[in-house]
């Protein structure tokens, strides 16, 4: 994760776009289960709900995890002016997207 893993703690918020049980979601779930931080979903932020946006801004370290270069999680957080400390694109880590799943 290019140095991000060492900085993760319970004060870390992870954001991912949930899509067909996507790999980026799985990564965030597993990191949360291992105690590296708390997972948040983007729907409330994308829906411009002030409570969700403020909760995200209150997290000291944000890690956005996208499944590909399209960058949905990054775009939602950027539009809501939620600062990201780390940004991870799964496909940049050498993991290929499942084309059949993406076309569902």
What's the short version?
With 104 residues, the protein is of the alpha/beta class. The protein has helices at residues 23-33, 43-46, 50-57, 72-79, 99-102; strands at 12-16, 38-41, 61-66, 86-89.
Features:
single chain, about 100 residues, alpha/beta, Rossmann fold, four-stranded parallel β-sheet, 5 helices, disordered C terminus
How does this model look, in words?
The chain has about 100 residues and is α/β, with parallel strands linked by helices. The chain has one domain: Rossmann fold (3-Layer(aba) Sandwich). About 35% of the residues lie in helices and about 20% in strands. It has a four-stranded parallel β-sheet, sandwiched between helices. The longest helix is centred in the N-terminal third of the chain and has 11 residues, at about 25-35. It is globular and about 35 Å long. It starts with 11 loop residues before the first strand and ends with a helix.
Set out the fold topology.
Elements: E1 12-16, H1 23-33, E2 38-41, H2 43-46, H3 50-57, E3 61-66, H4 72-79, E4 86-89, H5 99-102
Parallel strand pairs: 1-2, 1-3, 3-4
In CATH, the architecture is 3-Layer(aba) Sandwich
Question: Per CATH, what is the topology?
Answer: Rossmann fold
Oligomer: single chain
SS class: alpha/beta
Q: In the residues, how many domains can be counted?
A: 1
Q: Can you identify the CATH class?
A: Alpha Beta
- The overall strand count is 4
Q: C-alpha Rg, in Å? A: 13 Å
Order of helices and strands: EHEHHEHEH
Beta-strand content: 15-25%
Tally of alpha and pi helices? 5
Report the mean per-residue pLDDT as an integer. Answer: 76
Helix content: 25-40%
